[in-house]
Amino acid sequence: MDKQARIQELKREKNAVILAHYYVDEDVQQCADYIGDSFYLAKIATKVDAERIIFAGVEFMGESAKLLNPQKRVFMPDATADCPMAHMTDVEEIEKVRKEHPDIAVVCYVNSTAEVKAHSDVCVTSSNAVKIVKNLPNPTIYFIPDANLGNFIRKQVPEKEIITNRGFCPRHVAITMDDMLRAKEMHPNAKVAAHPECTEDVLKEADYVGSTSGIIDYVVNTEGDEFIVATVDGVFPKIKEQAPGKKLYRVIDPQVCVNMKKVTLDKVIDVLENETNEITLDEEIAKKAVLPLERMLELAK
Ligand code: 13P
Ligand code: SF4
Fold first, then answer.
1. pTM assigned to the model
2. What pLDDT score was predicted for residue 178?
3. Which residues are CB-neighbours of 103 under 8 A, at least 6 positions away?
4. Which residues line ligand 2 (CB under 6 A)?
5. Ligand 1 atom closest to Cα of residue 210
6. Which ligand gives the minimal distance to the CA of 233?
7. CATH fold label, 3-81+260-280
8. Fold match flag (3-81+260-280 vs 175-250)
9. Ligand approaching nearest to the C-alpha of 260
10. Which of 61, 110, 232 to mutate to test the pocket of ligand 2 (most atoms within 8 A of CB)?
11. Ligand 1: which of 58, 146, 212, 256 to mutate, most ligand atoms within 8 Å of CB?
């Protein structure tokens, strides 16, 4: 039996669904019941009624699914698939800023640990960050842990003061402005779509900035045959499926998230068969950490 068929069989046997982020390899996306950006996956996690969720993504995504569904069992195909940016801030840093600015709202990108979420006021993803920050009553925002997404929000919401820390995504900051200018020179007719985790100078060159789902929708629905895509290559298969005629170019080659890459079909089979790598959370932290996630789901409506 091939691996895809085995996974379908195991899903039925174990009453499990597979949620996959766009950054995992195409074969893993193919075995998933739901594929999406991190906001869609957090939302869908609250709606599935299977007993088990297999999260083909990185740790903070599985953790968010578990926080929102404490009664369900959530498993990670690879226990070491983690987003380094999620660890680029901590509770000490938050508490220090809160002391200096008592009226601040701590807005935390979902790419963060449960402990950091537990000390934040609201979570956001790249697809709803601008909307949520705009609608918060606080004039001053402490946005963690992605300084680049924070800069992007600052530009879109100039009426607020946005304080950021120094977090970044190693994959997206590896795309430099020189790389982008070279790609534009090679493909002068291409439109540019970029993820807001890219640096400010790269984003200046973009025709569209948005989440992974936003990038897919933009490329599929925008007139033109050529697009430069400044994010992880995992978004390419969905675009090709929906708009097979479009030519897609990378800014650098390859554009991979090494942690997302750790998720393989063999590991999905293993986790389904052996129920390893289950997410467990400290109860006290979980009780607090779910609140900013729930607030995000409410405010993003
Ligand atoms: P999205 O929310 O756009 O899917 O992005 C998640 C992520 O980790 C980007 O690097
Ligand atoms: Fe984290 Fe960057 Fe990978 Fe996204 S692409 S999961 S931000 S390391």
1. 0.97
2. 98
3. 138, 139, 140
4. 58, 83-85, 111, 169-172, 197, 232, 257, 259-260
5. 3
6. 2
7. Rossmann fold (3.40.50)
8. yes
9. 2
10. 232
11. 212
Domain boundaries, the chain: 3-81+260-280, 85-168+286-299, 175-250
Q: Is the CB of 128 under 6 A from ligand 1?
A: no
Whether the bond into 145 is cis, omega within 30 of 0: yes
Over the Cα atoms of the chain, what is R_g?
A: 19
| Class (C level, CATH) for 85-168+286-299 | alpha beta
Which residue type is seen at 72?
K
Ligand closest to 86 (CA) is 2
Positive/negative CA dihedral, 55, 57, 62, 64: negative
**22-45 per-position pLDDT tens digit:** 999 999 999 999 999 999 999 999
Q: Cα separation of 143 and 154, whole Å? A: 10
Provide the residue type at 73 as one letter. R
Q: How far is CA 68 from CA 60, 117, 128, 140, in A?
A: 12, 13, 18, 28
For the stretch 216-225, contacts whose Cβ atoms lie closer than 8 Å and that sit 24 or more positions apart, written own/partner, are 216/22, 216/242, 218/193, 219/193, 219/243, 219/246, 219/248, 220/246, 222/191, 224/189, 224/190, 224/191, 225/189
Q: What is the fold of 175-250?
A: Rossmann fold (3.40.50)
**Of residues 73, 288, 108, the one with CA closest to residue 55:** 73
What is the residue whose two structure tokens read 């609140």?
Answer: 291
Amino acid letter at 268?
A: V
Q: What is the pLDDT of residues 3-16, one digit of tens each?
A: 999 999 999 999 99
